[in-house]
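Step 1: inspect the first sequence and its tokens.
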Amino acid sequence: MKSKAIILVILFIIGIAIAFLMLQERTDSPGIMTVGSVAPDIELIDSNQNTLKLSELKGSVVFINFWSTWCDPCIEELPSIETLFRHFSNNPRFQVITVIFKDDGQKALRYMKENGYTFPVYFNPDGSAAKKFRITGVPETFIIDKQGVLRDKIIGPEQWDSPVMLETLNNLLNEQ
């Protein structure tokens, strides 16, 4: 009877150890986007087939938003992204990047034109950008500082032109 109890205790300890190791592997694996981690380098394509690499924007505060035309919350926040883009359009150290996610690119470009939006739209046909940023859905937004570090991750819609958001982004721009 005593040996059965010892075996059960040993099996329990082994089970706990395996669970701990699996959890460590998941939380320490590269590419998990947590605030304070370095943003992954992604490559995007604009409507003119020009490529943009995130690593080329080091030294700028970067606003990356994943969206789709079929996503109502995405559509609701687009006017505030346009206002944000226009607010910072004269500042070369601030970059707005919006990425079309699981949507028809031509439909997205038509939607932009029909609504007078002028912020940059990029495509990532193989979906690698969304995978690297580990997005969970759309809209999802990432704010990256001038050193390439993720400073904020927002899941869901936001009022990007609010005084608080504009002040937050100005503060990031003014950091050394």
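Step 2: inspect the second sequence and its tokens, then contrast the two.
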Amino acid sequence: MEYADEWILFSENIDLHLAINESSLSNGELYTSATNTNRDLHTRKESLVAAVAGTKSVDVIQVLKQIDGKACKAMAKVTLDLADSMYRIVTITFPKAKRVIGRFHIQKLACDAV
């Protein structure tokens, strides 16, 4: 898997609820990950749908577009942060999904405002 340094996709793990986040795994390298938010799968290997090096929406969309179109259209809800790039990824890849801002991001906004 030559591409594994740049991205990895487990489209068979797709579910109706997804979370897309930026992650820093080591040495400040940023990745964008898509994981199932199904509580039964939480932290198991089946919860990872995709991991893409970097945070550029174009790169993430290119990987996620490899998922079956029916599964993308059936997506019910995607949890994301407030970044414009995340919004773009979700609206292009999962056009019918409800977009929900993660609770952590709302709490951070509120705390920063105080």
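Step 3: confirm your contrast with the notes below.
The CA atoms of residues 53 and 114 lie 34 Å apart. The mean pLDDT is 87.
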